[in-house]
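Input record (Table S2, row 271):
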Amino acid sequence: MPELPEVENICRFLKKKIVKKQISSVSVRLNKVVKNSSYAFIRYLKDKSVSDVFRRGKFIIIGLSAKYYLITHLKISGQLLYLSKKEPVAKHTHVIFNFKNTEYQLRFKDVRQFGYMYIIKSTELEGFLASKIGPDFPDLRYKDFKAIISSRKRIIKSLLLDQKLFSGIGNIYANEALFKAGVHPAASSSSLTQEQIKKLYSAINSILSEAIRMGGSSVDDYILPDTSLGSFQNKHKVYQKEGGKCPRCSAIIERVKQNGRSSWFCPHCQK
Ligand SMILES: [Zn+2]
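Output record (zinc ion complex):
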């Protein structure tokens, strides 16, 4: 599932390509991925110009002229592709946007069909986001991070994944940050020392910014809109590395299941 660095890269790519472009037509090939009625969705979008593309948490938000936003969540396997009309339309492409004066199309493809698109009025955006996600991680101050962690008695790994507390972190970056900070994924949040909370905060920030710079992690279905790959997967230390050696101490990396999600960790470095 694309996380903050992947979604950020998709937004930066699209911002360069589609801002100021005018939508000429939209075709919805699978109604269930659109949360408005397809009729209303197409009617809202037609002839609108794109004013901005930005991210909040894992949401991709496209500003449209005249008071609307198109919100996309890619969930497990969604992809936004920006390709020439000449490129064959792949199976599982559910929505296609055409723009004036270009042969390029924006395509929403999603094999698993958990992703969705939704148009809301600009006045509804903040309320919508507030109902779904907490503060975006790069904007979160240390003092607020610390308060969230130490006031709760929860397994630290699940707490990091809770989008209502911090938005944007998923399984890849939670595992990598816990390793970097030397914190066991099953530790109770209330048991972390001030030192550990500090290390975790700086680990998350440095990993997210490095991953953004490297185009995100191309594991599973994540690709950029032009189908190129990110490269931060080459920097993963523990994620999906069960049985491999810890790059720090050479102990064997283990995997545990927590709430149905796998966690990978070094039993020696993460106490
Ligand atoms: Zn180790």
